Design the sequence.
């Protein structure tokens, strides 16, 4: 037997999560991601990025999956299922492997980033590429989970949001209080809802964004902050149902992780917007990719395209004054840039040249750049 040492967010926040004192966590050491202050971007505000790409499978989905799979294991489940734009399937596959369960994942054929597909394959998921989009897959897995003995681990599973709310706890702990503004990319809107639940619990304030109650937490933990942030959600223009006020039938964007036309947390997201006095906005694919590249070049942080939507929106709203000068702003970077190597490879075309393997050729190539 291995010695039991605390690992992952369930052990860290057991008193704030719906688990028993002795519930064994299915964990890969998720959470505890860095909150990185930006040095060059975001003035006259102080912008921090919460780099969720440093979770075990490279996205924030691990926070939700440790809770959902821990709960499934507790109830004796043998299999889990999800629809996914990529990261949920990677996380479900990894945590199911950890728990000794089979994962089934439905993904849109040809529309998931290569790194995410590789993860699902390596972790032994049964992968069904459907001739349809994420929204089609979501309808299917909901129906299947009602008929067959498989546990649905999409964010409609309330344990997912319970796990994901812990990111807000970490931010409050790092800053000593809640930020003024928190910006996220929005697809199904599960994560923006989860953060609001987390901030509300951290501040000891009520929210109507969830009806889920922690029936198993025995004590009301102390408040960690006396305020909650304004919550801002950014979508891609081709996939912006919150801006259109209705589902989008054929969502399209280079940011495949938020290529979702019929958000599952539609009502909750509007509650978050109202309660936090926040807003939604949209960005073009060009704006998203430009910010992804700037963040990588000017700050050393490489996130996937969908993640860059939060910072792209924040920078624009800071510039326009919609986010007030002097505000403390946190942007969630939802996933790692290595998830989507093909997009990155398109950026660097032109950044590389081929030369002879001689000292002279290397010196000549360097000289041109060093003189500039
Ligand atoms: C899942 C995901 C999102 C969207 O989160 P929602 O909870 O669906 O709004 C954004 N970015 C990345 C990288 C994701 O994997």
Sequence:
């Amino acid at each position: 037997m291995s010695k039991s040492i605390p690992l992952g967010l369930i052990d860290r926040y057991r008193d704030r999560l719906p688990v028993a004192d002795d519930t064994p966590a299915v964990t890969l050491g998720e959470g505890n991601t860095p909150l990185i202050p930006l040095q060059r971007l975001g003035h006259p505000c102080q912008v921090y990025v919460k780099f969720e790409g440093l979770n075990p499978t490279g996205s924030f989905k691990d926070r939700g999956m440790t809770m959902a799979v821990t709960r499934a294991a507790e109830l004796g489940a043998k299999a889990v299922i999800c629809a996914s734009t990529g990261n949920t399937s990677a996380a479900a596959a990894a945590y199911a492997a950890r728990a000794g369960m089979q994962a089934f994942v439905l993904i849109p054929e040809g529309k998931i980033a290569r790194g995410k597909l590789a993860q699902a394959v390596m972790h032994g998921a049964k992968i069904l590429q459907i001739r349809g989009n994420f929204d089609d897959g979501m309808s299917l897995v909901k129906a299947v989970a009602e008929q067959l003995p498989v546990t649905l681990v999409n964010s409609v599973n309330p344990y997912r949001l319970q796990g994901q709310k812990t990111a807000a706890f970490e931010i409050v702990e790092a800053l000593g209080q809640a930020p003024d503004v928190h910006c996220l990319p929005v697809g199904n809107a599960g994560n923006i809802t989860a953060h609001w639940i987390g901030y509300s619990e951290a501040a000891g304030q009520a929210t109507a964004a969830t009806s889920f109650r922690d029936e198993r937490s025995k004590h009301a933990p102390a408040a960690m902050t006396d305020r909650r942030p304004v919550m801002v959600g950014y979508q891609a223009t081709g996939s912006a149902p919150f801006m259109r006020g209705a589902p989008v039938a054929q969502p399209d964007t280079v940011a495949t992780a938020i290529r979702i036309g019929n958000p599952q947390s539609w009502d909750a997201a509007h509650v978050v917007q109202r309660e936090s006095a926040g807003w939604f906005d949209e960005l073009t694919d060009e704006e998203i990719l430009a910010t992804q590249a700037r963040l990588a070049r000017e700050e050393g942080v490489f996130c996937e395209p969908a993640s860059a939507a939060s910072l792209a929106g924040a920078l624009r709203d800071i510039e326009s004054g919609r986010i007030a000068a002097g505000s403390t702003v946190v942007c969630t970077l939802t996933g790692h840039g290595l998830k989507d190597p093909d997009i990155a490879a398109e950026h660097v075309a032109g950044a590389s040249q081929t030369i002879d393997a001689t000292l002279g050729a290397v010196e000549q190539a360097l000289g041109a750049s060093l003189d500039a």
Summary: The first strand starts at residue 35 and ends at 37. The chain is about 40% helix and 15% strand.
